[in-house]
């Protein structure tokens, strides 16, 4: 059985709590207790080092432990510097230091997202007197070098890692045990709802909730879309909204139902095929085919639209979204012993700025129903 661990925000929070404890008591902690909030659970996180920097500043260090997850942040150090401050503003101000990514579409704002903000704020506020205020700076010394091995730049995050997630528990996403956990979650939600939203990763989960979709109707699939679709059909789900990054979901338009890049890719071939069917000129087809990423191909189509007043982005991605819906129906039909599924499947694809790029016809209808 694979061992679960905790997400980066949890370790950042633990370090901040330890630094605050030093400021107040001038004593190091070896372990801090953190309320994960999601799930509602108190966990103990070991602290590696704590030191006072000045009378008003302290620094604490933890190391990431995501469990048996194949996570590149495993054992990376997380620093939190906490300082007292006076003046107007929030009780807890959270800043990103070295190694925390910057959001290109947020004027360089630190990539510290909703769950991390809430986790830090709620755990730290409980330790403060009504008149006390602190400034917290999270530092990932190895963040800049680790970021080049992630897809962060595809989502407009540069110069470091993001503190992203909707939960404190880090689960292995590619193991059979994790698929079992996802299927159990699906079965539980199928008893409550006939319409569900499938999200591959954390960006989709975060964005779906920001749009107002009920978290209880959201199911995380990671790369296991094929078996999750088949299970949803068997469980009697009537409607499924696939909600994800276009660079992942477009694989389904090519019949690829396990989306991990180590198993199959084909994104540029799928994009090029749809562009060709719609009549894109040969030089532009070459550019699409040789694009290094799906985001680069999208950028080329957008530049064409801007220069010529055309609508290639809408045409190409509408074609892809409708094909995704069709391929999902065919996939479920092929695995249904009765030979015909009654599940309506729709798609919503977003870009690296976490802006909705396209909605299929069914996807549009389901999104309006869910929000």
TrEMBL record:
Pathway: Cofactor biosynthesis; adenosylcobalamin biosynthesis; cob(II)yrinate a,c-diamide from sirohydrochlorin (anaerobic route): step 6/10. GO terms for biological process: methylation. It catalyses: Co-precorrin-5B + S-adenosyl-L-methionine = Co-precorrin-6A + S-adenosyl-L-homocysteine. One of its GO terms (molecular function) is methyltransferase activity. It comes from the Bacteria. Its EC number is 2.1.1.195. Gene3D superfamilies: CbiD-like. Keywords: Cobalamin biosynthesis, Methyltransferase, S-adenosyl-L-methionine, Transferase. It is an enzyme of class 2 (transferase). HAMAP family: CbiD. Belongs to the CbiD family. This is Cobalt-precorrin-5B C(1)-methyltransferase. It comes from Aphanizomenon flos-aquae FACHB-1249. The gene is cbiD.
